[in-house]
Amino acid sequence: MKVNPDWWKNLFDEVYLITDARSVCDDSLTCREVDMLEDLLGLDKSLPVVDLCGGHARHAMELCRRGFSDVTVVDYSEYLIELGRKKAQSDGLQLTFVQADARDTGLPHYRYAAAIVMANSFGYFCDEEDDRKFLLEAFRLLAPGGTILLDLADRENIVNNFTPMSWHEADDDIVVCRERTLEADLAVSREMVISKNSGLIRDETYCVRLYTEQGIAELLLSTGFSAPSVHHSSSCHQRPGDYGFLTNRMIVTATRNSGQGY
Question: For position 260, what pLDDT does the model report?
Answer without folding.
Answer: 46
